Amino acid sequence: MQTSNLTAIRDIAGKVGETVVIGSWLQGKRSSGKIQFLKLRDGSGFIQGVLAKSEVDEETWAAAQKLTQESSLYVTGIVREEPRSQSGYELTVTGIEIIQLTEDYPITPKEHGIDFLMDRRHLWLRSPKQRAIMVVRAQIIRAIQQFFDERGFTLVDPPVLTPSSCEGTTNLFHTKYFDEDAYLTQSGQLYMEAAAMALGKVYSFGPTFRAEKSKTRRHLIEFWMIEPEMAFVDHEQNLQVQEQFISFVVQSVVANCRTELETIGRDVSKLEQVQAPFPRITYDEAIEMLHQEGFDLPWGEDFGAPHETAIAEKFDRPVFITHYPASFKAFYMKPDPTRPEVVLCADMIAPEGYGEIIGGSQRIDDPELMAQRFQEHELSEEAYAWYMDLRRYGTVPHSGFGLGLERTVAWICGLEHVRETIAFPRTLYRLYP
Ligand code: 4AD
Ligand code: MG
Predict the structure, then answer these.
(1) Which of 225, 245, 322, 430 to mutate to test the pocket of ligand 1 (most atoms within 8 A of CB)?
(2) How far is the CA of 366 from the centre of ligand 1 (A)?
(3) Tens of pLDDT along 132-177?
(4) Predicted structure pTM score
(5) Which pLDDT tens digit goes with each residue over 370-381?
(6) Where do runs of H (alpha helix) occur along 10-97?
(7) Which residue's CA lies nearest to atom 27 of ligand 1?
């Protein structure tokens, strides 16, 4: 078979009435004795192949009968319109060439446990739901890049191997860099600040690593982050970019991934509500709300997942929690000039219990305050000397944020756990496959 002569299922719409050949896998089949229905997939889409015993030659009929789940085959057939099918088309099969008859495919239509599926992630990806999630993820990435590219941001890639930390030292991934110590990046932010001083508005999109010993449905060890950084942008403008950005991404998925969202079983009406502006509450107001809900969290403590969920439940779109206490936030966040014990930061909490998807802030631009923070946080001035230079040579107000891609995918797809949002998740205690 000439693979160059194949038609992709996604292009089938333009081929009604024509005979095509599709390179495919058999997802499943059913038979009524005289008619066989083949559920075919080729990666680009799904189509049902139909063959009637009375209309095909014996060889083709027998080949169809032999087919097992995940067998690979070339199917020849005539494309027909079929309004009852999800794709709107069907294939009247006229010929079958089996490439390989698969035996004992481990993932059957019955229910499997999560460990069983995770051990076979390389095969699990073939299932319609997992495939749909990957398509939505790709659309989210496309929308993210489109949003920033169309608004004058330049894509800059920060390093993956770094000599120091950005988000504290507790979850750093250590490695050797010849004779030096190095860490896998937790966040590209500090480098993006340098890039913003050179290019104005920048964003990065890359993998980040956190050796988090937390086994929750929101944490991955390796995850992808989008980190915009903007010179001459203050806290308020930073929030406006974020709410416009998230509305754009969600509406882009709604517009382009209807079929996939349906396959995943997502309630699209919940996504349609996600339109800027987003509500804003301060940390103080959030604490107040939590006290009314019966939590006894004292002022000055960080929120955990149950707190975030309780707050998110009060809103039908993402909510910003702003002005957290400086005491437990990162060293680079700018204090509120009217109230220095809190910082000009915001976490964006997704609706429906998906937790924090964005962390961002205005950055300290004053060299003296920055030097003071290095001391308070016991950070080596030598290691961060280059970062200090950004405050020494033409410092300006600037802000930025980081969006966690996998949490965003989990929320938009309505998934229980972030482990299904990336092809090969790295979770606590899992490095295989
Ligand atoms: O809030 P974080 O730690 O912020 C930063 O790293 C900043 N330096 C970003 C910036 O301002 N440029 O992380 C940002 C986001 C979180 O809101 C969350 O969505 C995601 O990254 N995230 C994780 N996602 C999956 N697994 C983990 N272990 C994550 N840790 C953070
Ligand atoms: Mg955070």
Answers:
(1) 225
(2) 25
(3) 999 999 999 999 999 999 999 999 999 999 999 999 989 999 999 9
(4) 0.97
(5) 999 999 999 998
(6) 58-66
(7) 219
